[in-house]
Prior knowledge:
The structure holds two protein chains of two kinds.
Chain A: E1 3-13, E2 19-29, E3 33-37, H1 44-51, E4 59-64, E5 67-68, H2 74-82, E6 84-87, H3 99-104, H4 113-118, H5 123-135, H6 151-164, E7 169-173, H7 181-198, E8 201-205, H8 209-215, E9 218-223, E10 226-231, H9 238-245
Parallel strand pairs in A: 3-8, 3-9, 6-7, 7-8
Antiparallel strand pairs in A: 1-2, 1-4, 4-5, 9-10
Helix pairs in contact in A: 5-6, 6-7
Chain B: H1 10-34, H2 38-56, H3 64-97, H4 110-121, H5 125-136, H6 140-166, H7 168-176, H8 181-220, H9 223-232, H10 236-264
The site of magnesium ion (MG) has 3 residues of chain A, from helix 1.
Amino acid sequence: MAAVLSFKRVCKRYPNGVCALNDVSFEVLSGEFVSVIGPSGSGKSTLLRAANALIPISSGSVYAGGERISDLRGSRLRSARRGIGMIFQNYNLVYQLSVLQNTLHGRLGYMGALSALLGLYSESDKIAALELLDELGLADFAYSRASDLSGGQKQRVGIARAVMQEPRLLLCDEPIASLDPSSSKTIMELLRSLAKKRGIACIVNLHQLDAARRYSDRIIGLSHGRIVFDGTPQMLDAAATERIYGTACENLMTGGSDVPENSATLP
Amino acid sequence: MSRKIPLLSPDLRRLYALFLGAVLLLFVIATALTGFTPALFFGQSGEIWKFLSEDFLPPRLPESGRIQVIAEAFLTTLAMAMASTTAAALLAFVMALFGSERISPYPKAARFVRGFATFLRNIPTLVWAFILFSSLGIGTGVGFTALLITSFAFMTRAFIETMEDVSSDCVESLLAAGASFPERVVHAVLPAGLSGFISWYLYCIEVNIRASTIVGMVGGGGIGLVLFSYIKTFHYGIACSIILMVAAMVIIVDQISGRIRKEILK
Ligand SMILES: Nc1ncnc2c1ncn2[C@@H]1O[C@H](COP(=O)(O)OP(=O)(O)OP(=O)(O)O)[C@@H](O)[C@H]1O
Ligand SMILES: [Mg+2]
């Protein structure tokens, strides 16, 4: 299978001297669901933003869709970006606009300059958007203002917008960090099923170890900007977890079934 | 155990005391330097009061032939404030797009845009009016341009802040979706910030209605100039009624724009 994204010896040093990515190399295959885990500040967000060149890298190469994305400028960069959807922790919707308008923003990268500027989306795009919203359980909300939705619903709009880009790859930066456990489950399941159905590869930054284990084909562990683990969920044992988080498993709140029963009785 | 428990830490209390002392000291120094003493003010208050009550009051109506001129001058002042604020808002919007690192396509230049706006803003409207008056002569052109410059600078800063508050996240998401800069402006910056922009714009109109009267006095035309000419020719009664009308105009505009702003920000 072809790689939809590959990092080759990527380093990212911020202007303040922080080395957020240090010699990072990996490939993501078409349709693969990859979770990236690691403590705060380990470089997860930096890694995602380097993948679609939202931030420039210091050295190494990032290849997406066969092109070295760090070399692209202007319209070539924009057309590379439209093939990569992005989902944010804070949803990043335009809250004053309707759900449908937000969903259709995913098409802007494909439209002619004038029609995109005027928001003249084609009828087929609108139909596709409504069908997608229906698939995400948002059929009744197409004309609601995005600000009127709950967090879980907002994130589904975020997913709809990204999927409207017909991407080969989805980048998800802590998509469930602001959600309750039940919405989190819905979002992760929707994300996985949508991606698998359309053959879209996913990279998901997660702080929830149990979610990473349950939904991923593969887990990448980051620590201090380096990849210290890269393997299947089964391979993520106590030793690997300790390598990633720098502390023994018992000291981590992993959530889900790892929480002992009696902890529920604590006040 | 009769000692009271203090509510402030002793350090903080010392800081407050120091601050109060410094303010008092500055007051004393300033009074000494300007030669103005509060006693003098109270000593002369009789004269000020006499001037106000005998020369200014009661307000008198201008001759009927002048009423049309005065009405026109009022309209000129209103128009000057509205036109300059509107032109300034449009320019400031474009400028502000380049003043935020997270929105501008040239993030490195954003600092200079902000610096330029700050520089313009720190020169008071009245000073601009004097500078322009010296080169353009008396006329509404002076008032318009002076108000335009300062409200442009003010709104540029205000719009940048509004944009960074409400638009930078959704701008990033459109950037990631491959949207071009004009598309990001139209589909994210504008809808997300619109209520904020309008609110600042209305606030600026309020400020400029007041300022355009003053700017008028130093050569900017409109009601300020008319008022000034009445004062210069000792027609204090008429000046008084104009001042009252200016106050009424300011209050009415404030009320209207305040109402609209409240509606918008809901
Ligand atoms: N714009 C920036 N300028 C300077 N340093 C930055 C910037 N963004 C991130 N960093 C630094 O780079 C390192 C990695 O940050 P990054 O945001 O990628 O971490 P993260 O793994 O996403 O953390 P979290 O889990 O808290 O989101 C951190 O040390 C951070 O302080
Ligand atoms: Mg992060």
